[in-house]
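hiii so um. not sure if this is the right channel but i have a protein structure encoded as C-alpha cells and i wanna go backwards to a sequence. like what aa goes where. can anyone help
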C-alpha cells in the first residue's frame, strides 16, 4: 500500500532540477547508513519527498504572483509621482498653469478697467451701474447667442481658439491703437451738448458715449472673467477630468493662480508708482497701459499654447471620461427652446440661483465700497496703487483658503463647502454696513489710531471683499464647477454658456438696478444703506436655500458617477485576471495537487520517527 502511494507520487513529480539532483546525491550516502529497524521503503521515500519541502514556498509564491498579476499590471501601467498617477498629473499641472495665466491677466484687467472709466475726463463712479446694466448685460447675452451657435458647428478646440483670440487681439489693439487715438475717436463735443440739454443727472449715461472705447475695454475685461475663466477653462477642465480627480484637485487649481494674483497685484502697484515718478510732461498712464497690455497678450498666447499642447500630447481620446458629442444625434434646438429646457431643470435653476445671488450680493457691497474708495483716493495713481495692494492681499487670503478648501471638501463634502461663501459674505457684509451706519460714535476712538470713519469704512470694505473673493475662488467656483460634471454633454455646453455668461452679468446688473432704484427713491446711496443691508440678507438666505436644494440633487448623482467609474475599473481588472487565469489555470491546478500529494507523502514518511502524537502533528504542519 505504501509502495503504491510512493509510486503514484513519483509519477506526478516533474523532472528534477539540477539542484534537486545534487540534493539527492548528497542524501544518498547517508541513506545507506540508516538503522536496520526502519522499514525498507523508507530510504526510497525520504530522498523523493524531502527535496520537495524546500520547493513548496517558491511554488506557493509563484501561485500568489500569478493571482496578483492583474493588480501588478495595473500598477505598472499607472506609475505614480508623489502618490498621484502621472497620467493625472499630465492633465492637472497644465490646467494649473492655464489658470495661473488667466487670473494674472484678469487681475490686471480688473484693476485697470475701473481706473479708465472712473478717472476719465467727464466721467465718474456713477458710470459703473449704467455700464453693468445697459452695456455689459446686452453684450453678454449677445455672446451667449453667438457661442451657442458656434458650439453647434465648431469642434471644441476650434471653439476655444475662436473665442480667446478676439480677446487677445482687442487688448493689444486698445493699448497701441485705441487709447492713443482717444481724442480723435471720442465724441466729446456731442457728449457736452447732450449733457447740457439733459442735465447733470444723466452724467453716467452720457459718459458711456463720451468714453465709449474705455467702456468697451471695461466690458471686455468683465467678459474675460465670465468667458475665459468660467466657460473656456472650466469647460475644458470638466471635459478631461473625472469626479474623483475634480474632488481632489479642483480646490488646488487656484493655488498657483493666486500666486499669480499676488504677483499681478505687485505688477499693478509697480506701474502705478511708475506713472507718478515720470514727471508732468509724460503720459505715464499710456506707457504703463502698453506694458500691462503687452503682458496680457503674451500670457494669452501662453494659454492657447498650453491648450494646444494638452490636446496634442496629453489627452488620449479613448480615455477621456466624457463621451464625445455626436452632432448628428444632438437635437437641434432654437435659443428659445434651449432657454426653456434650462428653466425647466431644477438642477440648472439652482445653479443659476447661486451665480445670480453671488453677483447681486457682492455688487451691493462692492459698489458701496468703491464709492468710499473713490472719496478717499481721488487720484488715479493712489486709486490704482491701493487696488494693487488689494489684489495682493486677495491672493494671499485666497491661497490660504485654497489649502483649507481641499480639506473641507474631503471631510465635510460639497454641501458644507458650498455654504461657506454665502456665510462669509453675510457676516462681513453686516460688519461693513454696521460701520457705515453706526461709525460716527466711534470717531474719537478712530482718531487715536490715526484713522477717520471714511478710511475705516474703506479698510473694512476691503476686508469684506478680500474674504468674499477668497471664499469664492477657493470654494464657490470649485463647488459650482463640480456640479456641472454629472450633467450630459449638451447641457454642459449650453447650460454653462447660459449660466456663466448671462447669469453672472445678470447678477451684477441686478445689483446695479437695485442700487439705482434705492438712490432714486431715498435720495442718496448713504440713505439707502439700511435697505441695501436688508436686501442683502434676503438674497443670501435664498442663496443658502439653493445650495441645500442643489446638494440634495448633486450628491446622489456624484455617487452614481463614482460607482460607475469603480465598476469600469473593476471590470478592467476582472478581464485582466481572466486572461491571466486562462493561461495559468492548469499550472495552478497541478501545483495544488502536487502540494496535497507531497504533504501526504512527507507526513507518512515522518510518522515512524514520531515518539508522541504531538510531535507527529508538529512535523506534519
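sure thing!! here u go:
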Amino acid at each position: 500500500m505504501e509502495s503504491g502511494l510512493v509510486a503514484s507520487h513519483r509519477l506526478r513529480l516533474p523532472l528534477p532540477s539540477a539542484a534537486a539532483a545534487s540534493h539527492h546525491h548528497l542524501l544518498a550516502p547517508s541513506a545507506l547508513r540508516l538503522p536496520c529497524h526502519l522499514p525498507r521503503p523508507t530510504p526510497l521515500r525520504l530522498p523523493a519527498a524531502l527535496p520537495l519541502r524546500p520547493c513548496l514556498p517558491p511554488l506557493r509564491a509563484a501561485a500568489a504572483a500569478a493571482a496578483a498579476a492583474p493588480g501588478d499590471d495595473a500598477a505598472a501601467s499607472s506609475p505614480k509621482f508623489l502618490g498621484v498617477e502621472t497620467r493625472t498629473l499630465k492633465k492637472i499641472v497644465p490646467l494649473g498653469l492655464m489658470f495661473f495665466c488667466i487670473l494674472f491677466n484678469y487681475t490686471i484687467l480688473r484693476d485697470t478697467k475701473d481706473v479708465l472709466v472712473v478717472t476719465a475726463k467727464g466721467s465718474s463712479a456713477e458710470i459703473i451701474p449704467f455700464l453693468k446694466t445697459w452695456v455689459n448685460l446686452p453684450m453678454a447675452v449677445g455672446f451667449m447667442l453667438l457661442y451657442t451657435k458656434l458650439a453647434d458647428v465648431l469642434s471644441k478646440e476650434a471653439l476655444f481658439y475662436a473665442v480667446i483670440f478676439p480677446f487677445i487681439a482687442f487688448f493689444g489693439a486698445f493699448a497701441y491703437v485705441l487709447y492713443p487715438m482717444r481724442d480723435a475717436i471720442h465724441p466729446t463735443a456731442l457728449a457736452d451738448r447732450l449733457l447740457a440739454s439733459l442735465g447733470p443727472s444723466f452724467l453716467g449715461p452720457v459718459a458711456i458715449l463720451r468714453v465709449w472705447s474705455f467702456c468697451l475695454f471695461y466690458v471686455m475685461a468683465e467678459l474675460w472673467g465670465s468667458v475665459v475663466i468660467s466657460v473656456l477653462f472650466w469647460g475644458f477642465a470638466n471635459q478631461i477630468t473625472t469626479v474623483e480627480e475634480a474632488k481632489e484637485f479642483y480646490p488646488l487649481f487656484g493655488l498657483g493662480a493666486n500666486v499669480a494674483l499676488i504677483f499681478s497685484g505687485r505688477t499693478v502697484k509697480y506701474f502705478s508708482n511708475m506713472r507718478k515718478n515720470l514727471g508732468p510732461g509724460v503720459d505715464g498712464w499710456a506707457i504703463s497701459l502698453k506694458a500691462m497690455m503687452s503682458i496680457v497678450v503674451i500670457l494669452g498666447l501662453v494659454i492657447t499654447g498650453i491648450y494646444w499642447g494638452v490636446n496634442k500630447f496629453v489627452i488620449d481620446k479613448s480615455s477621456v471620461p466624457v463621451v464625445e458629442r455626436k452632432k448628428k444625434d444632438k437635437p437641434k434646438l432654437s435659443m428659445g427652446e434651449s432657454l426653456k429646457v434650462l428653466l425647466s431643470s431644477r438642477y440648472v435653476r439652482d445653479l443659476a440661483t447661486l451665480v445670480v445671488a453671488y453677483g447681486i450680493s457682492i455688487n451691493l457691497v462692492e459698489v458701496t465700497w468703491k464709492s468710499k474708495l473713490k472719496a478717499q483716493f481721488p487720484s488715479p495713481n493712489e486709486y490704482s496703487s491701493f487696488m494693487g495692494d488689494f489684489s495682493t492681499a486677495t491672493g494671499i487670503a485666497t491661497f490660504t483658503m485654497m489649502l483649507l478648501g481641499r480639506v473641507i471638501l474631503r471631510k465635510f463634502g460639497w454641501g458644507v463647502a458650498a455654504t461657506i461663501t454665502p456665510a462669509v459674505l453675510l457676516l462681513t457684509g453686516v460688519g461693513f454696513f454696521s460701520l457705515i451706519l453706526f461709525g460716527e460714535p466711534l470717531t474719537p476712538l478712530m482718531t487715536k489710531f490715526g484713522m477717520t470713519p471714511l478710511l475705516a469704512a474703506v479698510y473694512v470694505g476691503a476686508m469684506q471683499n478680500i474674504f468674499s473673493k477668497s471664499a469664492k475662488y477657493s470654494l464657490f467656483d470649485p463647488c459650482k464647477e463640480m456640479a456641472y460634471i454629472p450633467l450630459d454633454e449638451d447641457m454642459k455646453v449650453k447650460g454653462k454658456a447660459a449660466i456663466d455668461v448671462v447669469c453672472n452679468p445678470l447678477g451684477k446688473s441686478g445689483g446695479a438696478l437695485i442700487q439705482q432704484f434705492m438712490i432714486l427713491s431715498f435720495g442718496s446711496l448713504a440713505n439707502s444703506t439700511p435697505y441695501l443691508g436688508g436686501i442683502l440678507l434676503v438674497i443670501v438666505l435664498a442663496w443658502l436655500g439653493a445650495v441645500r436644494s442643489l446638494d440634495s440633487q448633486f450628491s446622489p448623482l456624484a455617487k452614481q458617477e463614482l460607482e460607475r467609474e469603480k465598476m469600469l475599473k473593476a471590470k478592467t481588472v476582472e478581464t485582466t485576471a481572466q486572461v491571466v487565469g486562462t493561461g495559468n489555470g492548469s499550472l495552478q491546478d497541478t501545483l495544488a495537487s502536487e502540494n496535497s500529494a507531497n504533504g501526504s507523502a512527507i507526513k507518512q514518511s515522518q510518522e515512524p520517527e514520531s515518539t508522541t502524537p504531538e510531535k507527529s502533528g508538529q512535523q506534519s504542519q
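oh and The first strand starts at residue 80 and ends at 81.
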